[in-house]
């Protein structure tokens, strides 16, 4: 078993669990080693010196000893920060947890993840903390992660003829968009409106680092949520615990809206 002694790495705390009487197991998304579980001795004692380093969503530079398999160890941190808004807001919190859950499902424990993906996850969570629409940031991560789950929908042009002229519709059986001439090929196509198609295409290529503001109509957001849920349940088959709460929030919004309509 290889050990990396005294190494520095960027990390974001995903979750933690009590372990025995005084200790904790802390799961951290790292830039160099993927998702690692750290054994933190004495973490539950009062006045523990690394207490703030192992709070959920703490992030910064950590140093310690990393084992390729099994538990790793933190010796210290620097430039440690908290995502204050995420910490304080249960809604932002559940979106951020969901994104970190997806990271776990996509890359697994002890598997190094490409730097580009660490940056994407970190940027997404940073943007949610800055209160850019968390539903949209999450959609972007979900769409871009499809490739990692072995489902990369072809969204550049019509799958059949390569036309870039809309209107388009999305076909699960063809794994991408069809131009109107080719809609007849799939009667079970998703029948999406053009605005939803536009955002699906945009989200597949957008660079989160370049994203400074985004406004999507509530109706389109619902369509995006529904479309991505369909793709995830039909083709990815991954379900993250934090998603349940996001779905519940969605149905509360619906209820409130119905009440408002009366
Ligand atoms: Zn076509």
TrEMBL record:
Keyword DNA repair assigned: yes
Gene: recO
Species lineage: Bacteria, Bacillati, Bacillota, Bacilli, Lactobacillales
Cross-referenced InterPro entries: ARFGAP/RecO, DNA_rep/recomb_RecO_N, NA-bd_OB-fold, RecO, RecO_C
Main function: Involved in DNA repair and RecF pathway recombination.
Gene Ontology biological-process annotations: DNA recombination; double-strand break repair
Family affiliation: Belongs to the RecO family.
Protein's name in the database: DNA repair protein RecO
Top-level division of the source organism's lineage: Bacteria
Residues in DNA replication/recombination mediator RecO N-terminal domain copies: 9-77
Keyword NADP: no
GO CC annotation terms, alphabetical: bacterial nucleoid
Keywords: DNA damage, DNA recombination, DNA repair
PANTHER family: DNA REPAIR PROTEIN RECO (PTHR33991)
């Amino acid at each position: 078993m290889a050990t990396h002694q005294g190494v520095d790495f960027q990390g974001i705390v995903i979750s933690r669990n009590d372990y025995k009487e005084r200790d904790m197991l802390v799961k951290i998304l790292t830039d160099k080693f993927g998702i690692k579980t750290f054994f933190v001795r004495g973490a539950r004692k009062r006045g523990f010196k690394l207490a703030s380093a192992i709070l959920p969503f703490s992030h910064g530079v950590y140093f310690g000893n990393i084992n390729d398999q099994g538990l790793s160890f933190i010796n210290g941190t620097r430039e440690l920060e908290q995502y204050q808004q995420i910490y304080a807001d249960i809604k932002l919190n559940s979106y951020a947890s969901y994104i970190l859950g997806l990271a776990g499902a996509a890359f697994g424990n002890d598997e190094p993840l490409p730097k580009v993906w660490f940056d994407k996850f970190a940027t997404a969570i940073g943007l949610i903390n800055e209160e850019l629409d968390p539903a949209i940031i999450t959609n972007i991560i979900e769409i871009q992660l499809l490739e990692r789950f072995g489902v990369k929908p072809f969204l550049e042009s019509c799958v059949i003829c390569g036309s870039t002229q809309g209107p388009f519709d999305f076909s699960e059986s063809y794994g991408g968009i069809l131009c109107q001439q080719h809609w007849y090929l799939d009667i079970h196509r998703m029948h999406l409106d053009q605005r939803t198609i536009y955002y699906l295409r945009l989200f597949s290529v957008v660079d989160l680092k370049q994203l400074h503001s985004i406004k999507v109509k509530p109706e389109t957001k619902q369509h995006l949520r529904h479309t991505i849920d369909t793709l995830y349940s039909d083709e990815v088959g991954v379900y993250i615990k934090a998603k349940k709460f996001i779905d519940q929030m969605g149905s509360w919004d619906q209820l409130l809206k119905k009440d408002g309509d009366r």
